[in-house]
C-alpha cells in the first residue's frame, strides 16, 4: 500500500506541512553557524503510514526511514544542520533491553563528537517514556537529548509528527536545553524524561507530567523554560552501560482486587532479580501476596513497592514495614520507570539501602 502512492511520500508530506503553516513559521536564517543536530530514528508512529489520509488508527508503524522524515520537513535546514541515522526501525512496543543499550551507546558516541550540538530521537509513543528515562540515566553528556514522537501517522490529514520534529530539532540545538537532561518535546510542550508519561491512548496531548507539571513550552521557534528537573541525570549519573551486553531481569506485577501470587512465583522461577510491585493505593499489599513477596526477598530478589495510581510519593514504611521486610520504595516513579532504575541499580549493587538512596536521587 505504501508503494502504490501516486507521488513520493516526502512530496505528499511537504504539501501537508505547508497547509498548516509550518514553512511560514520558520525563522529567517540567523547570522552565524547553525547548530549541528543528529536525528536518530527508531521507527514508531511518527514514521508510520496509513491506508488513507483519514487513517489515524490501524496504521503501520515504522515505515518511513530517517531520510524521508528529514526530507519531508525542509525547514529543518533553516534552524540546524541536520544529519540522520537509523539505529532501529520498530514499533516501540517491541523495544528490548538490548535496543536500549544499543541506543544509549550510540547517543553517547554521537554526543562525544565536538561537531555535534544535540541529538533528537524519533520514537514510538508506547514506550517513549521508558526510553527517555533510560537515556536520562545512561547518557553522560550535558548536550541536549530530545525524544519526539507522534500520535498520528505521517500520512494522516492532521499529522502531528512534522511540527513535533521541527520543535524537537530547535530544542536540541538550543543553549537553553543544555544540562537539563533528556527532554520530551511533543504538542508544543517540553517535559522531563524522568517524569513524563503517556496519559491517553490516542490524543495528541497525551504526554504529560501529572501534578509536577511540564518544564516549559515551544513557542515562536524557541524553547521557554519555567522550571527545572532537580533529580540527578545524564552527566551526574553513575550508570555506565558502555561495556554492557545485557541487563538484569526485572519484572512488574500488578496489584488488584482478589489478586494472587501466581505471576510473582512464575517470575521468580524464571530468574527475576528484581520485582516491581505496582500496588494499589500507596503500594498496599494484599494478604494473599504478602507471603510470596517475603519469600522472594529471602531468595535474594529485590522488591520495590510502586503504585498503579500514577501520582504521588510511595511512602517508605507506610503500607508495609519496609525496613523490617528489606523492601525498597519507588518514590514518585511509576512502575515502568521504577523497573528501568532497578535494572541499572542492580548492575552496581544488591544492597537495598544503597538502592533506596538511588530511588531518592535519580
Automatic annotation (TrEMBL):
Source organism per UniProt: mine drainage metagenome
Domain named L-asparaginase N-terminal: residues: 36-227
Lineage: unclassified sequences, metagenomes, ecological metagenomes
EC number: 3.5.1.1
NCBIfam families xref list: asnASE_II
One Pfam family of this chain: Asparaginase_C
Protein name: L-asparaginase
Keyword annotations of the record: Hydrolase
Family: Belongs to the asparaginase 1 family.
Coiled-coil portions: none
Domain Asparaginase/glutaminase C-terminal: 249-359
Entry's Gene Ontology BP terms: asparagine metabolic process
